[in-house]
Structure formats: structure tokens, C-alpha cells
Design a protein that fits this description.
The protein is mainly beta and about 270 residues long. The chain has a single domain, classed as TolB, C-terminal domain (Neuraminidase, 6 Propeller). About 10% of the residues lie in helices and about 40% in strands. The chain is built from 1 helix and 20 strands. It has a 4-stranded antiparallel beta sheet, with no helix packed on it. Strands 2-3-4-5 form a 4-stranded antiparallel beta sheet, with no helix packed on it. Strands 6-7-8-9 form a 4-stranded antiparallel beta sheet, with no helix packed on it. A hairpin with a 5-residue loop joins β18 and β19. The longest helix is centred in the N-terminal third of the chain and has 28 residues. The chain is globular, with a radius of gyration of 18 Å. The N and C termini lie far apart (about 60 Å). The relative contact order is 0.16.
């Protein structure tokens, strides 16, 4: 029985490696769409903006600075003027979206080192957590290690669509489609890029735009299977892409938690 199990594990590992290699090759061969980064503004009070979400009232900017927890700012997209500011219960948050009358936020850290990262349903008026679930696929990735004192990381970009939300989880190197009120996985697609550093997400009809921050790339992927359709390359001289969304005119916006800039691609 052990031999059979080992054989299945080996075959699964080979299949996973082949799939990863195929998607990495597809990403390299994907057509590059030329875009220019336009730096717009920095939001007052937001020093580390880590995700964006357009709503009819404006633009939500999620900040990852723990003071002691994270704030979210509803701003006017045209100039960044703050309409409303809320203090959430999230820690080092990296993903935000809106649906079912609530904000959905990825808290990448727990209050204690042993606590698993959470995905939260949040009151958009008060910042109070209404429900929360353990984030699937959370863990260490990239340069992270237990020896360095790193703790598991959770969800990054989130985007609501048709009563569900997409959620990027770098440690799993996947983008999950989630049932919001139960925290159950519907399905998943592979994260794009050369490393497991998926971040912001934007919707584009039947496709997803997904950031890989290490690559400074924004990949357009098929929402059915994760195949790479196109990419936008951000230069080393521009702010690093973290959070992402698309406005009603089809223009991609991103934010950089390192410099604080809100940008759009023109």
C-alpha cells in the first residue's frame, strides 16, 4: 500500500511540475500590452495602500499599516479626498472587495503567531468584523521561513463577481473562487508569474488581471483555467504593483504599499 501511495504522490508531483512549467512558459510567451504608469496621488492617512476596490460611492483603499489594526479609506477617485475612514480588525491586510452589502478583507496575519490568517466580512460603516474564516492555502512563501520568525501569510487581492469572490493566496500560488458566506472553495486556478507572489486582482469580463509583485507584472488570465492571455510589464522605475482594480472605463488602477502611490495605467 505504501508503494502505491508513493507512486500516486510521485505522479501528482510530476503532473503539478509539468503544469507549473507549462503556465510559466505561457506567461513568457504571452503578448505584452504597452501601458504607461501615471502616478495620481497619495491618500491622506494611508501610508501603505495594499489593495483597491471601486464602488458606486468612490474608491476603497485598504492600508496594511497595523496601528494597531488596519484602516480602510473610501476616497474620491479623481483626487483622493477621503470620504470615510474606518478602522478594521484586520492585520497586515492585503485584499479588499465589496459585495452583499459588506467589505471582504484578507487579513494576512493573526493576532498571535500561532493564529491562522483570516478572511473577514466587515461592516463598511463601522469596520466591525461580522464573520470570519480561516484563509485556505495560507502559509510561508518566497523568502519567508520559520527561522526568520515569519508567520503564515494569508489572502491578498480579492474581487467580487456574481455572488462570489476571487482571492489570491501567494503561499498556495493559486487564485481561489470562494463562497462568501461559508468560506468554502468553489474552485481555483494557478497564480501567474515566475514566483508565488500573486497580489491584486481585477475583473475583465471572462478574464482576470492578476498582479505578480516579484515580476512587476500584471497578467491577464482565463478565469476558467488560469491560462495566461496577456501581460503588462511595470518598469523598475515605477511604483511596485500591489493592489489592483479596474474602473468603469476599463482602465486598470494599482497601488504600491511601499511608496504609497495610487496609479493608473494609460
Amino acid at each position: 500500500m505504501d508503494r502505491a501511495v508513493s507512486r500516486r504522490v510521485f505522479i501528482a508531483g510530476v503532473a503539478g511540475a509539468v503544469a507549473a512549467s507549462r503556465f510559466a512558459h505561457a506567461a513568457q510567451e504571452a503578448p505584452t500590452i504597452a501601458k504607461r504608469v501615471q502616478k495620481l496621488y497619495k491618500v491622506t492617512g494611508s501610508t501603505q495602500p495594499n489593495d483597491l476596490q471601486f464602488v458606486p460611492e468612490g474608491l476603497w483603499v485598504l492600508d496594511q499599516l497595523d496601528q494597531p489594526t488596519n484602516k480602510a479609506f473610501l476616497v474620491k477617485p479623481e483626487d483622493g479626498t477621503v470620504i470615510r475612514e474606518i478602522l478594521t480588525e484586520a492585520l497586515h491586510a492585503s485584499g479588499i472587495t465589496y459585495g452583499n452589502g459588506a467589505l471582504w478583507i484578507g487579513s494576512t496575519k493573526g493576532k498571535n503567531a500561532q493564529d491562522p490568517p483570516k478572511t473577514m466580512k466587515v461592516d463598511p460603516k463601522t469596520g466591525k468584523t461580522l464573520k470570519q474564516w480561516n484563509t485556505p492555502g495560507a502559509g510561508l512563501y518566497g523568502r519567508m521561513s520559520l527561522e526568520r520568525g515569519d508567520t503564515p501569510s494569508g489572502a491578498h487581492g480579492l474581487k467580487w463577481v456574481d455572488g462570489k469572490y476571487w482571492m489570491a493566496v501567494p503561499a498556495a500560488n493559486k487564485v481561489f473562487l470562494m463562497e462568501p458566506e461559508t468560506g468554502e472553495i468553489v474552485r481555483s486556478v494557478p497564480g501567474p508569474g515566475s514566483t508565488p507572489r500573486t497580489h491584486g486582482i481585477a475583473l475583465d469580463k471572462g478574464a482576470l488581471w492578476v498582479i505578480n509583485s516579484d515580476d512587476r507584472s500584471i497578467f491577464k488570465i482565463d478565469a476558467k483555467d488560469g491560462s495566461v492571455l496577456a501581460k503588462i510589464q511595470i518598469s523598475k522605475d515605477d511604483p511596485v504593483p500591489h493592489g489592483l482594480d479596474m474602473d468603469r472605463n476599463g482602465v486598470l488602477w494599482y497601488c504600491d504599499a511601499g511608496t504609497g502611490w495610487i496609479c493608473k495605467l494609460v
